[in-house]
Design a protein that fits this description.
Layout: E1 10-13, H1 19-30, E2 34-38, H2 43-57, E3 61-64, H3 71-85, E4 90-93, H4 108-136, E5 139-144, H5 157-176, E6 182-189, H6 195-208, H7 212-223, H8 232-243, E7 254-257
Parallel strand pairs: 1-2, 1-4, 2-3, 4-5, 5-6, 6-7
């Protein structure tokens, strides 16, 4: 008998071909969940990733290439998960992009793309997954927001607006399903050393003529009192907690894992 907590359940993790999404997908697979991967990247590398996770954790894994800015493709991805695995039990909304510029200089098309991928996609996946969860009277919706869902930073108007929106949507989704077995919560990471953040580190090192290690320390010292990056594995462990029986009454929270960023 398989005693893993999520055996027989399926987790769909958007933006899961690298970084935070991959860390969370691996943590859920370790608990026995079948995984639907989503994200951009080299087709051969994605197939190796999918097959590797399936083999390592003894689960089934599939991949869907939905563009998270397109509602019709999101609908198709949820249908794909339903046809392949019988539904989505754990939905992790993680896909996100970033662009930095002051408000008056912010390109309109960049604003629209960030709102579409970082906020609207969370609405579309949720609305499509909820009917199946309601039939089973069990579901976990985990929205990967950001500390920028709780505080602001100059130059990040679209990202901060989208992530604040995700926190608000999380609360409403939790309240609407408060009398069911479906919970909805947000994880708000601080600096995590993902490919996206590594690029910011590299840019800073090049700009200031310092080592990569010095650039990491400089980046962290501005915001994150612990002086250490949050890891995808730590975020994955929090996602697992939300899926556990101990998380049954954790509803509508925005849980920051940020090395003390928001405590300041």
């Amino acid at each position: 008998m398989n005693s893993k907590m999520l055996s027989g359940k399926t987790a769909l993790v958007t933006g899961s071909t690298s970084g935070i999404g991959l860390g969370i997908a691996r943590s859920l697979a370790a608990q026995g969940a079948n995984i639907v991967f989503n994200g951009f990247g080299d087709a051969q590398q994605i197939e190796q990733l999918r097959a590797g996770v399936a083999q390592e954790f003894g689960v089934q894994a599939a991949y869907h290439n939905a563009d998270m800015s397109k509602p019709a493709e999101i609908e198709a991805m949820i249908k794909f998960a339903e046809e392949k695995f019988g539904g989505v039990d754990v939905l992790v909304n993680n896909a996100g992009i970033q662009y930095v510029a002051n408000v008056e200089d912010f390109p309109v098309e960049r604003w629209d793309a960030i709102i579409a991928i970082n906020l609207s996609s969370t609405f579309h996946t949720t609305r499509c997954a909820l009917p199946g969860m309601k039939k089973k009277n069990w579901g976990r919706i985990i929205n990967v927001a950001s500390v920028h869902g709780l505080v602001g930073s100059a130059g990040k108007s679209a990202y901060v607006a989208a992530k604040h929106g995700v926190v608000g949507l999380t609360k409403v989704t939790a309240l609407e399903n408060a009398h069911t077995g479906i919970t909805c919560n947000a994880i708000c990471p601080g600096w995590v050393l993902t490919p996206l953040v590594q690029k910011q580190v590299d840019d800073r090192a090049a700009r200031d003529g310092i080592s990569n290690e010095q650039a990491k320390k400089a980046l962290l010292s501005e915001k994150q009192p612990s002086g250490e990056f949050v890891t995808p594995e730590e975020l994955g462990a929090l996602a697992v907690f939300f899926c556990s029986p101990a998380g049954d009454q954790v509803r509508g929270v925005a849980w920051n894992m940020d090395g003390g960023w928001v405590a300041q």
